[in-house]
Amino acid sequence: MKPIGFDKKRASEILDAQGIDVLVASTDVNVFYTTGLPTLHVANNPILWVLKNQFPYIALIRRDGEVSLFYWMVFSSLDKFSWVKDATGIISPQQAMKMVSDKLAEWGVESGKTVGLESLMPRYQAEHLASKFSGVKFIDGDSAFLRMRLVKSKEERERIKRSTAIAEKAIEQTIGGIHEGIVDYDLLKMARRTIVDEGAEGWDHLTIGIGSADPEAPGVGTVMKRGDIARLDIGAVWKGYVSDVSRHVVIGDIPEGADEVVERMIKVQEFCVDQIRPGADPNEVYKATMKFHQPLKPEVKPIITCHSIGLECEEAQVFSRMGKANFLIEENMVVDIEVWQNFKDLGLIGIEDCYHITKKGCERISSLDKRIFVK
Questions:
Q1: Are 153 and 33 in contact (CB under 8 A)?
Q2: How buried is residue 108: exposed, middle or buried, by Cβ count under 10 Å (0-12/13-18/19+)?
Q3: How many CB atoms lie within 10 A of CB 362?
Q4: In the chain, what are the helix, strand and coil shares in percent, each to the nearest 5?
Q5: Which class does domain 8-149 fall in?
Q6: 349 close to 258: Cβ distance less than 8 angstroms
Q7: Domain locations in the chain?
Q8: Residue range 44-81, pLDDT digits in tens
Q9: How many other C-beta atoms can be found within 10 angstroms of the C-beta atom of residue 202?
Q10: CATH code, residues 154-374
């Protein structure tokens, strides 16, 4: 069985560059990425994720790219999911940590060596390792995992494309079912039903807002009226990989001024897309895009965000108001580019799409019409 996205050679180069002798994966996403073990909360049966407090899963990645895995021994289908041959079953957190310590010792981890840990590693695990290896330097390993995951394999890109198609189908079906008087929890039901019927394991997010209602907290009984703009921002999960697409729909006439905002946000997004290519500096792309917008509407500062997408929706911020990445853009990254503006009392309106970064630039993955849909 071949890895989905994990590349032994790339992992080795990253660990060597960062001076890490062993990198430890302890969260669901990074254990799945490095081993294929179905640890995600959207697995067909997320039992490993549910029981991780009693039966933790841990993967060790050596500087040469070799991987060792520890997992709940009752799970007897390892060979159907994982490509890792050095795998050991455990029956308790205590046994897991003893075996991890033994493996690290076997691999020659001793005083003067460097081990990378995830910042979200359970405290008891980090404390155990620190007590067993007092002369070892423990550092934050998050950036190493991020560097590995940023560049997507062909299989990963195909999964994101399929996830995106499902999210867009959910948006289309929900728009098709919208009518005056519909309640927000009915929109949620339509989106969920479509996502499952299209073969996805589930949804990453269902950000749905009607009018001035909070789109981050749908399902509170908001009724849609004529003239309300509904925001449908949906991410599906297909074979572990997520998507992120957003569109607007209105019943009747589009509120005055909304069309102008969306058209301008589309122009800004498309300019931003044209600046993104392998080797581009995220900070320079952000500055150029903000400069492009300035003469279009000098009194407005749009919210422009680009984030990497993969096993997590916001895998890493490439650039936004909150900061810019300290790495250059690489070929075969997959990013989400979103541009928003506050509109009257209706919150944010704008546009959001996913793109694959090729040798020549950005290839759009999402395909829905970018303008406001009218019912």
A1: no
A2: exposed
A3: 22
A4: 35, 25, 40
A5: alpha beta
A6: yes
A7: 8-149, 154-374
A8: 999 999 999 999 999 999 999 999 999 999 999 999 99
A9: 17
A10: 3.90.230.10
